Each structure stands twice: as C-alpha cells, then as structure tokens.
Amino acid sequence: MKCFYQKIASALLFLLAGTMALAQSFSYKNLSVELQSLQKQLVPDRRVAILDVELKDTLQKQIVLSGETDLPEAKDHIVSFLNAKKVLFVDSFRVLPDPDLLGVKTWALGTLSVLNLRAQPGDATELVSQAVMGTPMKVLDCKNGWYRVQTPDHYIGWTDSGIQLLTATEMNRWKESNRYVFNRMSGYAYVSPDKNSDVVTDLILDNLFEAEAEVRGFLKIMIPDGRIAYVRKTECLSWKEWIGRKPDVQSVITVARKMMGSPYLWGGASSKEADCSGFVKLVYFSQGIILARDASQQVRSGEKIDFSNRENLRPGDLLFFGRSIQRVTHVGIYLENGDFIHSSGRVQISSINPEDPKYNPKRNLVEVRRIIDLQPDTEEIVRVKDHPWYSNL
C-alpha cells in the first residue's frame, strides 16, 4: 500500500511539474514582444551600445537567459523584469568586456595610420567606421582573432589588426606621456632622421603618438605598438598645443577644402577616404572636437539654426539632408553664399541655392546645427582634452 501511495505521489509531482512547465512555456511565448520593447528602451541606438537578449526553452523544460551587453545596468533591468514576471531561468548572460577572453587587457590603441572597423568579425562584412593611429579604444570581446572595440565616440565595431592591447595601468601611462599629433593631410615616419631613409609607416591627419626626443629637426617617436620612427617636427603639434587651441571656423574650412576631390568610402572616417559623416567628423576632430559618428546621430548635436532664411547660416554650420529630421541620410559643412562642402562620390562643393548650377533638387535640407561656438557639454559633442580616454582628468 505504501508503495502504491508513493507511486501516486510521484505521478502527481510529475503532473504538477508538467503543468508548471506548460505555464512557463506559455509565459515564455508572451515575453518576446515585451523583451524586445525593453531592449529598445535600454539601448535605443545599437551602434553605440550592446544588448542582445535571448530566451531558450531547453529540452529539460528550463528557460535559459543568454545574450550579452556592455552595460551591466541593462542586465540588471532584464533580470528584474524576468523576476517580476516570476520566470524561472538559468543565467547564461555575458557582461562585456569578457574577462575569460580578454583578461586584464581591456584597452587598446590604434597602431596603423587608419584601421577599419567592421559590423561583424570577418573581412567580407560591412565597413562601419575607421579609427586612426593613437585612438584609445575599449576592448569588449574577442572572436577568432577579431576584437570588438568601442571608440571614444562610443561607436562599436570589429577589427583583426592595427591595435595594441593594453591594461588600464598602461593606458594611464600613455595618457601622461609626451604626445604629438600629426598635423598634415598625409606624410611618413622614417627609420632615421632623414626623409630619404626607409619608411616605417605612412601618417595621416590626427595620428597620435609618443615623442621621445628631437634629432636634427625630427621627432623620435614611438608608435603604440612599440615601433620607433622619425617624423619632421614641423609636421606635428604637441598634445598641449593641439588641445589648447580654441576651435576655429576658418581652420575647419581650411581642413575641409584640403580634402577636395578625396574619394567617398562608405564607413570611411579618415583623410584618406571618408563618407559624409566621417568627413564632417574628421574635420572637426582636427580642431579637438569629438562628434558622433553618423549623420543621424550628429543631427542631435549643437544649436538648432533657423534655415528658412539663408542669412542665418554661418560658415562651419552642419547641414543635414533627408526625408525628415527623423530620417537624416546626409550631412555637409556650410561655407558661404549657399555653398557647402561634403563627401558624395568625392569631396566636393554643392549649393542649397536652387538658382545655382551646383544645386541638387534631390537633396532635401531638413536641419542646420551650429557646433563651433558652443561649449561642448553633451555626449554628442566632447572636446578631446575633456575626454577621459585621452586625458587623466
């Protein structure tokens, strides 16, 4: 008899477990829409933050929370949400940087004149942006020799070369070092203080490196990966000189014009090749101002200007084009008399004046923003000297 009751109890427990599993499964189906909505609230722009959440219903009738984020608070929100729903789950969620893969080297510096950042870990994937030599980056993840990094404008991409991994201590030492920035559109660093000697690396505008000494008009520099080279001192600005300058409209225009004819490259953000927003970004970075990466992000920056009267526009203003403010697809820099300079096919000058032959009726001006006279104090506009990745504040 005792054995009989034990069998009944076991059967009831099995039935109860099955009922709970069905209830759990039913709830699981209804969670997806709510979780998607929560993800959009926590990370509205996936270009600058990571939050991927997945619930898996295993054969053992267990729900597994998997995915990843670089925002610990985002995971806390997800877990609280599931707990509030009384969802029983196994936590397999990753918070980046992943110490199991990266150890303590969760920082990096760019070591090439320009390095490519891709949407996924693979040479055939989309080019989303670029970073130049000396750009400080957070290292978030590693996969098959590719590193997922985040640049100072918070943009995220994958690269398989051109970075030197560093610890936080090593990064702090670099921020205190004697640094110089390359102040020409292009040039070279040599194996000796002689322009006829072999080239160590090419250099482009805004490359950043340490200087160890001055030899016969050349700076003896150390590239972030440890290579030693020599570059003409007259082609460089000291870190203090660069960050100490007041951003100047005429300098913005001068740098922009020096890129005339440079080819357009989707994802490009260097003086070699650039897309429209990359062009704007690098021109302003030459003045020590960090802008957001894409035009749809840059349009949230700066002072809103009434462009119904063209007389309100000033040189250096950012002109945004698209269907609407919510659907910005292009950006350029205003010059004067209706002219603006932008990267479209190549860096060129066009006009917003319908009577000008350079006018393109397909370009719909939807917003104008002013950057140069502002004291940057938002996430979209930051001075290099105030950015904690570049300086120990």
Number of helices: 8
Radius of gyration, whole Å = 26 Å
Strand content: 25-35%
Intertermini distance:
78 Å
- The SS-based structural class is alpha+beta
Find the count of extended strands (DSSP E, 2+ residues): 25
- Tell me the overall shape: globular
Helical residue percent?
10-25%
Low-confidence spans: pLDDT under 50, at least 5 residues?
Answer: 1-26
CATH homologous superfamily heading of the largest domain: endopeptidase domain like (from Nostoc punctiforme)
Architecture (CATH level 2) name of the largest domain = Alpha-Beta Complex
Report the sheet with the most strands, covering strand number, pairing sense and barrel closure. Answer: 6 strands, antiparallel
**Overall mean pLDDT:** 91
Task: Tell me about this structure.
With 393 residues, this protein is α+β, with helices and mostly antiparallel strands. It has four domains: 17-95, Histidine-containing Protein, Chain: A, CATH 3.30.1340.30; 100-174, Roll (SH3 type barrels), CATH 2.30.30; 177-244, SH3 type barrels; 249-386, endopeptidase domain like (from Nostoc punctiforme) (endopeptidase fold (from Nostoc punctiforme)). The protein is built from eight helices and 25 strands. The strands form seven sheets. It has a six-stranded antiparallel beta sheet. Strands 9-8-7-4-10 form a five-stranded antiparallel beta sheet. The chain has a five-stranded antiparallel beta sheet with strand order 16-15-14-11-17. Helix 6 crosses helix 7 (276-285). The longest helix is centred in the first third of the chain and has 41 residues, at 2-42. It is globular and about 70 Å long. It starts with a helix and ends in a 10-residue tail after the last strand.
